[in-house]
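The data are quoted verbatim for completeness:
=====
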Amino acid sequence: NILWNLQNLASNNKIGKPDLEDKWIISKLNSLIKDYSEGLDKFELHNAMRKFSDFVMHDLSRGYVQMTREKDNSAVIGLCLENLLKMLAPISPFLAEKMWQNLKEKGIVKEESVHLCEWPKEDKKKIDEKLEEEFEKALKVIEAGMAARDSAKIGLRWPLAKATVEGYESKNSEIKEIIARQLNVKKIELKKGKELKVSLDLQVTPELEAEGFAREFARKVQEERK
């Protein structure tokens, strides 16, 4: 179902200058191609499919699509789907072929059939293990921050002044900005700690309240336009 829904977000646009999120998911894609191919070669189908499922559900759908929902991410999603369908073809031949034909109609892929394609090969130059580790930690922070919002019963659309994160370290300012954007807070403050913990500054100033209402108004206008 997730794969099927992702095809609606894909396009045949060319990938422009990649953002950090683009570099991360492309690195994860190439790591998957490598690990998945090795798993099939060793007849370890269960391990290969576990990595495949983790990428689709955890990295691509819950991670990349959510992080880039304000941007044009369609070209990168198209690239991911093209390679995912090639890997899925021996395991689920009919679903892979049906989705391939759908992508072909949109001009995203060119080959007549997914089963006539060459097996994908990882690009080792695009694999950045350090970046993958950074994002894996960041996704855990975002998940903990979302849980803190749920506990406080404050919707994600309402901006907050600050989130204090314990047990997480990063010198990458771009990743900290991504975390702040995903949690809809103005500032991320890091503190030392043994366990990961996210606490939120729940004081809503008139300025933050006004920004929240403005976003809610814009969202409802967009819904009416659709």
Observations:
- Residues 17 and 44 are 37 Å apart (CA to CA).
- The mean pLDDT is 93.
